[in-house]
């Protein structure tokens, strides 16, 4: 289901309540939405707030990458407003610190809490896709890797002694992996994908242990971006128009909380047309809660995340899952707020194909080309 949704439709809709079984994550997202709304209300009502309190969009202090930006920016005569935030690795606080001057300490913490929810879900999806792609490519299959025991206790392969297996060709012939070999390969693919998500993906936390080379720096490379899209300077024409053009993201996944005002459009490779996942999320919400009884706990859209594959997932999925082409459209009557997280790679880490995705013999040309490269170099090459 995950692979089909991402590969053929460009996104996956995640219900964080698991069909109303749990509400903890939805409540955290509801708090984040309240903070985002409060932030843009204050900036929109008083233009001097942004200029006097917030730093302009700039490279985060102490990082060596020009892609690690924090701060506020406004484009298209104020139609597009962005506040780029990141997690400080040492204490998990939100940067820039001036954000709390507008939304308060509780508001800043709500952004951190939401980031943690979204990053964990994003890591789970990358793990599933990467492992499934490795299994499909037989990247961890070794014929005869699982040795069973005969009743007498002597070692055997597929029920034969080593001598019998060699004579029959089972021990050497390619393509004759046993069921046990395949099960082992799936386990190894899953374990390797877990390593990738924990070591390579930047969730804002310090990398535990010292098994791999890394120089991750003081600030997460994965931004949490507050956005406000409007169409204030256009005519009163009510039809939605494109305000942020079609593009793909240099991320493993981009996680977009479903918004009250829809506007995210993803190009559906299966139907060859633009698709609005937030409208589908609303339909799903109505089937679960037709009378809106849950609205007192959280708004309907706070339960959903839209997860889109990025260019780095296209790499680790061996091109099984292409990066999603997406855009933002808005009408003139209501601005659209958004708060996506772009899960990117941890600085200073390297792509180790054998560690994370198995045999080099089963790797495609792009994986082979990226093997041993620092993730920053791969990120720059994809720009």
What does this structure look like?
The protein is of the alpha+beta class. The chain is 37% helix and 19% strand. The protein contains eleven helices and 17 strands. The strands form four sheets. Strands 2, 3, 4, 5, 9 and 16 form a six-stranded antiparallel beta sheet that branches. A four-stranded antiparallel beta sheet has the order 1-14-11-17, with helices on both faces. Strand 7 and strand 8 form a beta hairpin. The longest helix is centred in the N-terminal third of the chain and has 38 residues, at 99-136.
Brief summary of the model shown:
The chain has 383 residues and is of the alpha+beta class.
Kindly estimate the percentage of residues that lie in beta strands according to DSSP: 15-25%
Spans of at least 5 consecutive residues whose pLDDT stays below 50 are none
Spatial gap, N to C terminus? 30 Å
Helix content: 25-40%
Q: Supply the helix-strand structural class.
A: alpha+beta
Subunit organisation of the chains: single chain
Mean of the pLDDT scores? Answer: 88
Query: What best-fitting shape do the alpha-carbon axes yield?
Result: globular
Any key phrases for this structure?
4-stranded antiparallel β-sheet, globular, 19% strand, alpha+beta, 37% helix, 383 residues
Layout of secondary structure:
Elements: H1 2-9, E1 12-15, H2 24-45, H3 47-53, E2 58-59, E3 69-75, E4 80-87, E5 94-95, H4 99-136, E6 148-149, E7 155-157, E8 160-161, H5 162-168, H6 179-199, E9 224-229, E10 241-247, E11 253-257, E12 264-268, E13 273-275, H7 277-288, E14 304-309, H8 311-316, E15 326-330, E16 336-338, E17 341-343, H9 353-357, H10 365-370, H11 375-382
Antiparallel strand pairs: 1-14, 2-3, 3-4, 4-5, 4-9, 6-7, 7-8, 9-16, 10-15, 11-14, 11-17, 12-13, 12-15
Helix pairs in contact: 2-3, 2-4, 4-6
């Amino acid at each position: 289901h995950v692979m089909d949704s991402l590969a053929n439709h460009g996104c996956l809709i995640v219900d964080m309540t698991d069909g109303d079984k749990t509400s903890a994550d939805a409540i955290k997202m509801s708090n984040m939405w309240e903070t985002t709304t409060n932030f843009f209300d204050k900036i929109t009502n008083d233009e001097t707030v942004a200029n006097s309190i917030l730093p302009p969009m700039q490279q985060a202090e102490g990082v060596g990458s020009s892609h690690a930006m924090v701060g506020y920016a406004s484009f298209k005569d104020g139609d597009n407003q962005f506040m780029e935030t990141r997690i400080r690795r040492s204490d998990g606080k939100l940067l820039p610190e001036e954000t709390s001057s507008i939304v308060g300490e509780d508001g800043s913490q709500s952004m951190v809490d939401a980031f943690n929810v979204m990053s964990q879900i994003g890591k789970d999806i990358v793990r599933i896709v990467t492992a499934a792609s490795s299994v499909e490519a037989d990247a961890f299959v070794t014929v005869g890797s699982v040795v069973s025991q005969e009743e007498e206790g002597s070692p055997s392969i597929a029920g034969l002694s080593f001598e019998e297996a060699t004579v029959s060709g089972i021990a050497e012939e390619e393509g004759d992996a046993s069921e046990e070999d395949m099960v082992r390969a799936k386990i190894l693919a899953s374990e390797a994908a877990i390593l990738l998500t924990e070591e390579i993906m930047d969730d804002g936390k310090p990398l535990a242990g010292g098994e791999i080379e890394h120089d991750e720096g003081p600030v997460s490379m994965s931004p949490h971006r507050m956005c406000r899209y409007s169409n204030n300077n256009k005519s009163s024409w009510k039809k939605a128009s494109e305000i942020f053009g079609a593009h793909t993201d240099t991320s493993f996944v981009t996680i977009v909380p479903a918004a009250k005002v829809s506007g995210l459009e993803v190009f559906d490779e299966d139907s060859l047309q633009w698709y609005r996942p937030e409208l589908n999320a609303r339909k799903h919400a109505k089937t679960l809660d037709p009378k809106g009884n849950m609205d007192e706990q959280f708004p309907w859209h706070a339960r959903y995340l839209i997860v889109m594959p990025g260019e780095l997932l296209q790499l680790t999925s061996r091109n099984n899952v292409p990066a999603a082409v997406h855009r933002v459209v808005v009408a003139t009557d209501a601005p659209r707020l958004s708060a996506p997280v772009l899960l990117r790679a941890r600085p200073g880490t390297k792509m180790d194909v054998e560690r994370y995705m198995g045999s080099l013999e089963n790797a495609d040309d792009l994986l082979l080309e990226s093997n041993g490269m620092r993730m920053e170099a791969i990120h720059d090459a994809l720009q």
